[in-house]
Amino acid sequence: MKTELIDRLYDLVKEIDNEMNESLKQSSPIDKKIINLYHILELTPLNAVKTTKVTKELKETLRVRRDNKNFLRFEQSFHKELLEIKKRIEVVRANIKLDVHRYTHESEIGYQELFGEEK
Predict the structure, then answer these.
(1) What pLDDT shows up at residue 63?
(2) Which of 19, 34, 46, 116 is close enough to 50 for a disulfide, judged by CB 3.0 to 4.6 Å?
(3) Residues 24, 70, 80, 2: what is their CA dihedral angle, to the nearest 10 degrees?
(4) 45-63 pLDDT, tens per residue?
């Protein structure tokens, strides 16, 4: 029962870790969009209406990037703690496996002592 809970917790931590790694990859498309908008402003002759449209799009994209960066700071801190939890769970899982092996060995010795024969 306890090992099942530990395994479920480990799987959950692993899943969260994978999702967090995926979210780190999402900043790249936003940065590419910002660069494209800068290039449009810099290299394309635009009238006032188009300049305003590109500027509004740039402003909104920069806001999204800022929101993502703020969340990313939180996520990185949480991710660091999550990795520590994952390491601790791995240690517990390894110890449980060692205990099962040790107890199995001890039960075989106890069986031999009690019955004078091997299982």
Answers:
(1) 95
(2) 46
(3) -90
(4) 999 999 999 999 999 999 9
- With a CB cutoff of 8 Å and minimum separation 6, the contacts of 90 are 10
Domain that holds residue 102: 2-115
- The sign one gets for the Cα dihedral 87, 72, 19, 27 is negative
Q: Pick the range with the lowest mean pLDDT from 24-38, 55-69, 82-96, 103-117.
A: 103-117
**Count: domains in the chain:** 1
Q: How many CB atoms sit inside 10 A of residue 3's CB?
A: 12
Q: Return the closest-CA partner of residue 87 out of 2, 31, 17.
A: 17
In this structure, what token pair is assigned to residue 97?
């496996």
